[in-house]
Design goal:
Blueprint lengths: L19 H9 L5 E4 L5 H11 L3 E4 L3 H8 L11 H10 L3 E4 L2 H7 L2 E4 L4 E2 L5 E2 L1 H13 L5 E4 L7 H10 L10 E4 L9 H8 L2 E5 L2 H14 L4 E3 L3 H27 L1 H4 L3 H8 L22 H6 L7 H11 L1 H10 L12 E5 L14 H11 L3 E5 L12 E2 L2 H4 L6 E4 L16 E2 L5 E2 L2 E4 L12 E4 L3 E2 L1
Parallel strand pairs: 1-2, 1-4, 2-3, 4-7, 7-8, 9-10, 11-12, 11-14, 12-13, 14-17, 17-18
Antiparallel strand pairs: 5-6, 8-9, 15-16, 18-19
Length: 464
């Protein structure tokens, strides 16, 4: 748990007399050491991509266990392709080290990258406590000519109104160091691919020199183009606009899906046909929206808007109501007639996205709580999770669920492993000798239960 030792002579990338070519050479040669604050699912792969470009990167995290594991070359995110090998190689050749001593890392670094979590509190207000703490750590070692890049997704104005005042506390003044927002554009399960250049990299500085420094550095990290915005506030809004676009589009798809019975059509089929017109790009409806991004970013934009932006608010409301729609559809469906108390429900998929072992804001959690409040017993099946998040339900192995007595099933997350489920195992013989099925709600258009005795509702397609 050590800080990478800085070279004898380091070079600042903000201001000064060095030319752009000299600064670029210094960065490539490790003479502008890098500290990345936050070794989470984005921070770790980002720091290792930095390490590919320059040989002096220190990863900072407040969790001693995480730092110890990284120092041993152990990857906590083994679902990320290529990350384990890159970590072990980077540790072995000294390009990457990890530490809990943020102030020592800040004192040694000339490039500071903040990629800590930003969330919302119980009142749907942005909670920037982790970012503020990281900025204070950076400020303890910030020197003239250093640059600070904020990768964390933040509300508009955060760099200038929150981060910069922390960094300029004491005798330090604006203009002594660079500050830019460089929003991450990374999806779980493809972090290295995305950081290296799946999409153009957006950067925006609080001043022109900060923007130039960000362009120089990220031009070395990405194989794609670097898009420089006019200022940091614009760059902060880019990631938020991306997330809100998806939230609104998904809400439209979900609202259409809830009306499929009234329309008398398969909404999924209709959307697919509508999307053959190049000006139409409706997304796919589902059981809800989860993850670290879309459920939170609209609130970053809405902070301080005072009741305006009704479309953004309505879209968020539509998507937050989808788990309730799924449960109501099940309860009002065949076999329950409005009362599910005492029933046992198999809940397939707790992770927020197929193939990704993360549960933040997963709609399955809301589904489980709603079923529990109605008196149902939840059997949660998720083969890629070692344990359930805080939610009602028994964690049942995939191989065991077929032997359990269940009255209904809900699919929230379409893991590939569910393709092997024998759905006939849930059928039972009735008093008259016929096979009787259960009620199934498919929240992802992933199940083909034709040939079974089950009553099936597919979100966007209706009952069959």
């Amino acid at each position: 748990m050590t800080v990478n030792a800085p070279p004898t002579e380091t070079v600042g990338l903000y201001g000064g007399d060095a030319s752009a070519a000299e600064k670029l050479a210094a960065f490539r040669e490790g003479r502008a050491p890098v500290a990345v604050y936050g070794m989470g699912k984005i921070g770790l792969p980002l720091s290792l991509v930095y390490a590919e470009a320059t040989g002096a990167v220190t990863g900072v995290d407040i969790d001693p266990g995480r730092v110890a594991a990284l120092s041993d070359g152990t990857n906590p995110f083994d679902h990320e392709p290529g990350l384990s090998a890159l970590l072990s190689n980077s540790v072995a050749d000294g390009r990457f080290a990890a530490t809990t001593d943020g102030e020592a890392a800040a004192a040694a670094a000339r490039v500071h990258v903040l990629v800590v979590p930003t969330v919302i509190d119980g009142d749907d207000d942005p909670d920037l406590a982790a970012l503020e703490a990281a900025a204070e750590t950076v400020g303890a070692g910030l020197g003239p000519g250093d640059v600070v890049f904020v990768e964390s997704t933040v509300p508009p104005g955060t760099c200038e109104e929150v981060v910069e005042p922390i960094l300029t506390a004491g005798d330090r003044e604006r203009g002594e160091f660079g500050l830019a927002h460089t929003p991450e554009r990374t999806a779980s399960g493809r972090a290295l691919e995305d950081i290296r250049g799946s999409y153009p990299k957006v950067v925006g500085g609080v001043d022109a020199e900060s923007g130039r420094a960000a362009e120089l550095v990220y031009g070395e990290l990405t194989d794609n183009e670097v898009v420089s915005t006019s200022d940091a506030r614009t760059a902060e809004c880019v990631k938020l606009f991306e997330g809100v676009y998806r939230d609104v589009n998904i809400a439209l798809a979900n609202e259409l899906a809830t009306l499929t019975e009234e329309f008398g059509v398969d909404a999924v089929e209709t959307i697919a046909a509508a999307n053959t017109q190049p000006y139409c790009d409706i997304l796919t409806p589902g059981a809800g929206v989860g993850g670290h991004c879309i459920p939170y970013y609209p609130y970053f934009l809405l902070d301080g808007i005072d009741g305006r932006a009704p479309l953004i608010r309505t879209a968020r409301d539509v998507n937050e109501r989808m788990p309730g729609f799924v449960v109501d559809t099940l309860v009002d469906g065949p076999g329950f007639d409005g009362d599910i108390e005492g029933a046992t429900v198999a809940l397939f998929g707790v992770a927020y996205r197929a193939g990704v072992p993360e549960t933040r804001a997963s709609p399955a959690i809301d589904v489980a709580h709603r079923l529990d409040r109605l008196g149902a017993t939840v059997l949660a099946v998720d083969p890629i999770l070692d344990a359930l998040p805080e939610m009602p339900g028994e964690h049942v192995p995939l191989d065991d669920i077929g032997g359990r007595e269940v009255d209904a099933a809900v699919l929230v997350t379409a893991h590939d492993e569910f393709d092997a489920v024998d759905w006939t195992a849930f059928e039972r013989e009735g008093p008259d000798g016929t096979r009787r099925g259960i009620t199934v709600v498919d929240g992802r258009q992933a199940l083909d239960l034709s040939g079974t005795a089950h009553d099936v509702y597919t979100v966007g397609r209706g009952w069959r």
